[in-house]
Amino acid sequence: MALPSHGEWYLLVGPETGTRDVFVKDLRDRCATKDGAPPEYHRFYAADADPEEVVGLLLNGSLFASRKIVEFRGVEALSAKESQKPILDYLASPSETDILLLVSDSYSVPKAFEDAAGQARKKIFWELKESDKPGWVKSRLQREGIYIDASGIESFLELVENETSAMEAACLGLAACFPPDARLDAEAVEASLGKTRKEDAFSIFDRIAESDLGSALTVLDAVLSDRQGDPQGVIAAMVWNFRKLPRLRERL
């Protein structure tokens, strides 16, 4: 990916957060190489930040960096024209130095943003298909010299969050636990990943599905107390899980 021109912005849509994170990291790294120092990086959520606040930050200069990258997540929630207007006005005359990222875990965002982005600025991060996941896990572990059978892959996919950054981290964790040429089955995968699995928003849903409110609230406290946890992420994970329930019901 070439370094964007001044005043550039992107519309990033889709649920595949792992690939999206790689895109953003690559953008930040290229800006740092170009400028000789990393850019300022800011993240806002549409649920609790006014569009005017985001635009104001973009239009104000920085004393500490050559440019800013501002990520505005959850833009699918900006359904009212009044909330869209500050962003659209900015897009018509963007900052000459800073970069705006309009982000949504959904594929669908307000048409005004779609029209403004066009094909050049819109990046879609498709969810990995269910049928592709076993092959992804198998080939990724083979790159580490580790072989995994069908039962091991099934256990892996049950234990690991459904996006590539989590799957990548789990594969690296297995590579650290087992020597090259190791052959993993379900028991080996569960023994390794089961012990190291970190409580997250998906763990909360597991407790809810088991009708265990007390345990769900305990896990919620643990997730929110973690510096990586945030309420918006918990809500997004809950929505993702509930949207999967109709598909599960159909399969059953």
Strand order of the largest sheet: 2-3-4-1-5
Rg computed from alpha carbons, rounded to a whole number of angstroms: 21 Å
Which overall shape is indicated by the principal axes computed on the Cα atoms? Answer: globular
Biggest sheet record: 5 strands, parallel
Q: What string, H for helix and E for strand, traces the elements in order?
A: EHEHEHEHEHEHHEHHHH
As residue ranges, the low-confidence spans are: 1-6
Task: Draw up the topology in text.
Layout: E1 9-13, H1 17-35, E2 40-45, H2 51-59, E3 68-73, H3 81-92, E4 99-104, H4 111-121, E5 122-124, H5 133-143, E6 147-148, H6 150-159, H7 164-177, E7 183-184, H8 186-196, H9 201-209, H10 213-225, H11 231-251
Parallel strand pairs: 1-4, 1-5, 2-3, 3-4, 6-7
Helix pairs in contact: 2-3, 5-6, 6-8, 9-10, 9-11
What would you say this structure looks like, in words?
- The protein has 252 residues and is an alpha/beta fold.
- The chain is built from 11 helices and 7 strands.
- It has a 5-stranded parallel β-sheet. Strands 6-7 form a two-stranded parallel sheet.
- Helix 6 packs parallel to helix 8 (186-196) and helix 9 packs across helix 11 (231-251).
- The protein starts with 8 loop residues before the first strand and ends with a helix.
- 25% of the residues are buried.
Provide a brief overview of the structure:
This protein is an alpha/beta fold and 252 residues long. It has helices at 17-35, 51-59, 81-92, 111-121, 133-143, 150-159, 164-177, 186-196, 201-209, 213-225, 231-251, and strands at 9-13, 40-45, 68-73, 99-104, 122-124, 147-148, 183-184.
